[in-house]
Amino acid sequence: DLIAIQEPHINFLRNTSANHHWHVLYPSLHYTQPQHKTRAVTLISASLDTNSWKQISFPSSDVVIIQLSGPYGNCTIFNIYNDCNSSSTL
């Protein structure tokens, strides 16, 4: 269970809203470079074993990467925000 969110609301504490049923995954630069606006957030269900997935660091505030692992192998999911004026994120 994953939810990829584009242009999430970020409050004054630099968090988005989610309940205890979800882990919130922010871009790797979210807390270290707060001057960059966070434009992609991914929610991953708390019911998924935390040993079955990991976030992969990426140097952009517009990208969240998750890798799921299991008996099927690995599955990498990219949540990429790309504004309509350029393709610089890509």
TrEMBL record:
Domain of life: Eukaryota
Protein name: Endonuclease/exonuclease/phosphatase domain-containing protein
SUPFAM superfamilies assigned: DNase I-like
InterPro entries according to UniProt: Endo/exonu/phosph_ase_sf
